Amino acid sequence: MRQDYARRAGAAPVICGLLLAALSACGGAAVQHGSDGTSGAAGRRGGTSPGVAAATGVPGVGDRLLRRIPAVSRQVVAVYGDGKDSADATVVLYSRRGRAWERVRSWQGHNGKKGWTAEHHAGDNRSPVGVFTLTDAGGVLADPGTRLPYTRSDSFAAPRWWARSHWHDFDYVIAIDYNRVKGAPPDDPARPEGEDKGGWIWLHMDHGSGTSACVSLSRAAMEYLLRTLDPDRHPVVVMGDRDALKDWGPSWRS
After folding, report:
1. Burial class (CB in 10 A: 0-12, 13-18, 19+), 3
2. Is the pTM of this model over 0.90?
3. Digitized pLDDT (tens) for each residue of the chain, 254 residues in all
């Protein structure tokens, strides 16, 4: 059930405690250090011209992960990590037209500061490899015109005792449906698979370095995704380092 966090300001001690945990899960560990694809130069320029990719699948993504993309999905946000232990990534938005995947736009981004893992757990500073739906959004700023359910609340704001570079991390967020309840605000505390599996893994605004597990992008990129992702097209994120995306399976480990 969707909760209106803005209306629950009177429960500040409880909500603030949950939110600090949430924000720490997404980027708080990076504050201790004063911080928070497709290969080639084109992915690093912050945008590309649309082009039709191979009809057989999303470029750089192997069959095992492709089979996890729902048949109804018509939008894929692909996060191509530079390496298993790298915090750098290229993020590409693809749109399906008939049997073809069209490369719409790409941006430079960041993932977990320690890279990627197939068995994410709370505090490992690695982003989870896999395919996850994108169903809910929110942030400190007003809805920029997204079709996704959007929760606007000051409770998303990063604490001002964090490094200044992190203050706008959660101005816009899109929840990655990893160990969370779909249809709830991104900061909902429910963990269906247990606390040890971690959570509050989001697409959010970038501060120039790795995160605790989230994927971060520029404000312009977040605004574009929020205005473009459409629930009727069942968007998903496919994420991992390039090697894992090509050959992910039960034997792949962090």
Report:
1. middle
2. no
3. 333 333 333 333 333 334 444 455 564 433 332 222 333 333 333 444 344 444 458 999 999 999 999 999 999 999 999 999 999 999 999 999 988 899 999 999 999 999 999 999 999 999 999 999 999 999 999 999 999 999 999 999 998 898 999 999 999 999 999 999 999 999 999 999 999 999 999 999 999 999 999 999 999 999 999 999 999 999 999 999 999 999 865 444 54
What is the Cα–Cα distance from 216 to 205, expressed in whole angstroms?
Answer: 5
Strands 127-128 and 236-241: unpaired
